[in-house]
## 1
Amino acid sequence: MRTRCAFEVAAQDQGAGVTYVGHMGHSLMIAGCMMGMDVRIATPKSLWPSDAFRKAAEAQAELTGATVTITEDPQKAVKGVDFIHTDVWVSMGEDDSVWEERIKLLTPYQVNAALMAASGKTTTKFMHGLPAFHNAEKEVGKDIQEKFGISEMEVTEKVFESPAAIQLERAENRVHTIKAVLIVTLGA
């Protein structure tokens, strides 16, 4: 028997919504549309999804009745949603020179207690792709704190450690998916 994630269960509810806040969010946008969700992306205009990704999401939305909204206003984007999702501001393999620019650009998109409250729902869950920069306990976090004077980036420690946070459950689901891919590719 397959365990279903909260995101998938909520997608079955009419009008279930998810907002991706920050840098990227392409696959979440398309997957949410495939499940018929109210999908919202909140990011600076310079980071909006490309036309190809937007058109792919809109095509899925036409089939399922989903909606897609892309905005620069994170407060507006989270109003009434069931999930607020974010990820790191600098992806693996990107040059270290982009840190300063991304921090300046994305600080208004940090998932913090105020943004969670802006959903207007006490049941809104927080998700993250992991790893997360929510404190300065790890080596990279310490380095960021020394260079830029901040200890939290895309999410605050308060949100990351809150009862609303389900990023670890999400990560567990990824483990099962990866195992299935390995089994199929190894021919077992």
## 2
Amino acid sequence: MSAVDTINNLGAMLLSGDVEVVDLAGPLGPETPLLKLPPDLGTNTPTIEIHKISQYDENGPWWAWNWLKIGEHSGTHFDAPQHWITGKDYKDGTTDTIPPQNFVAPVNVIDCSKESEANNDFVLTADGVRAWEAKHGAIKSGEWVVMRTDWYKRNHSEDAFLNMDENGPHSPGPSVDCIEYIIEKGAIGWGSETIGTDAGSAATFDPPFPAHNLMHKADRYGLASLSHLDKLPPKGAVIIAAPLKIVNGTGSPTRVLALKPKG
């Protein structure tokens, strides 16, 4: 089958519903949960604001539109390499310079929902990934790896989503050796359903925040605050994760979509 036939078949299957489009993004608005940094680590992103310019009125009689105040890393979002100090020197490391081919790729969905429900501080290790591969097949170079935790079901409440107490945030994520392993496998990016790509306890890891520190050091990408990973198979889906083409952008809110076979 030629590439043209493949594209034509995909188009026909999208129209017939034999290929489903799954929305992996959460709602984006003033109530969207946002990361809260400790005071000694820096300034937080501002609360999302949506302001009306006109709505079929004296400011615009035939149209409605708004202006937004929003941080690059708000809601479901894409992390570019220059988001982290370890990736700051990549010339293709911003949202306007990343090759667009990299925004579409197969995805491996590792289900850690039961473990995360039992232990909010659950950490996925390299051994856990290898066990998943033994059951579902190898992670291939150029593919996404995402961690399903069903954490998105908490995003109706910022307190529940951030899950912080006097000891800091409690949310699942990857270990250092997990990230090292998927980089070795050639993964193009790592994604999670939590507020960021790292575990809540990742500040205590060595190195800290490995999903940021190591992935971006390797010129790879991140997806955070994903939703509905429970609707995807372990393998066999393709995700489209295209950030806004922000000049020198370190990231972008993103409407992440997945294509999967019907059923």
## 3
Amino acid sequence: MEHLKTFSKYALGSLLSLIIGFTSAMVLTRIFPTEEMGKYSMYTMVGGLIASFVYLGLDQSYVRFYFDESEEARVSLLKRCILLPIVLTLVVALGLFLFSGVFSDYVIGEESLYLVPLFLLYFFSLTVNRFMLLKIRMAQKPMAYSMMGIINKLTYFVMAIVLYYAIFGAKSWALIIAVTAGEMVMLASAFLVERKSFFGKQETAATSMDQLMKYGLPFLFSTAITILFESTDKIMLKSLSNYNEIGLYTGAQTIVNLIAQVQTVFSTFWLPVALEHYSQDPEEKGFYIRVNKIVSYAMLVVFILVLCTKDIIIYFLGADYRDASFIFPFLAFMPIMYTVSETTVLGINFKKKSGYHVWISIACVIVNMIGNYFLITWFGATGAAISTGLAYIVFFALRTILANRVYPVRYANGRFAIACIPVAVLAGIACFYSVHWWYLLTAALVLVLVSFLYRDVLSQSKQVLLEVKDKIKGKTSHEKK
């Protein structure tokens, strides 16, 4: 029940964040053309890509060794992990100032003296926020964690509207300044929330810098390659297409964020719970199997429902983004496969085999680059989405296989693979056809098949709901007495 309460708090905050994000997308895609949205998307993509190198994998080290430290030593652990990334941001700043013209021309298609200083504010805030949010997350403060995301999105939305009407009009500068302000305000808010821990009783962390680097350094490559993997579509769209296609692709990603919010909630809640469970009883694996089945079925159902409503959902975006309804179906495999893989990848983290993440990411980058090269040429942004979706299927498979080599768990992987085949066929149809009666009939048949494969999950869900209902009734009766 305690885990359920924590999850519900994360879910509530994520729901509010989703509403704000989706509302902002509805408004902003109506006033900013696809080309300007494409420039903004390049700005945020480049920021995330560079930041992945700057972390040096120490963000992952902080998570892994968090429970190995006493409560009083965890601030010391954070400071130890964040020092080198901050130093590296200064090095990046010097490099960008030396090549400011080339950098701005690549990102927004024009030379500008103002882009680099603005980008450095965004980049610094992005880097520090990564560690601050991990601190809040690992301390299992769901309301505070959720509030950070809400503050970020709300600031971005309000600033974008103000800048649109007051200064820039429908130019990407309004979006770029707004997203930078969102990160800066969130950083200030995170420090405000955590200020007591920084000035309270502290001990020196027992985990040495050598241990942190040894565990985290492989993540430098894997995380950077993963970000490259996630950014390959936009990079190659820019090379093989134009900002308009990137803008459409960004519109499609807005739709995918419906499912990605579920991924974010689950991942945020799941990792600390899984690590804590493993530290208490490493041999009890039934817990992971049950969660894997529930998550697999839930994500597949959400995916099918989103595919069925794609032509309705797309009307929430501006008229210039209507073609995004043929882009996001396969792109939605990204959060599906990532979320389910979070339940099967645990062995790699438990056994500290972080080097495996490097090979997984390299393989996925290669698959995605090859797929993008051919499919973008044939289908444009839709081809990029199909390539990304297929690459994430490979991502799930490799994470699961390698994790089971070091920490065997009898997941229902065969069942999941069978369920994914008709779902992938439905997604492929959705990439080229609008929703008609025969499409909905196909989706209904796929849903029935998936539900049949996971009929045991449905049965267990009923038992869980009855148990929750009985506990609520018992609590109510006790309060009346």
## 4
Amino acid sequence: MAKKTVATLQTKSKRLTKAIKMVRSDKTGAYTFVESIMDPDLVNDWLSKK
């Protein structure tokens, strides 16, 4: 499974990171991309989840 932090975004109050994870579907075997914008401290936990 490939994973990569793509961009760092800044808003008025806090710094955010956009993370993209490639996930394989059990049903079809095809890969899909899941995107999420979150606090930089939570990125590693989010990427390690299956």
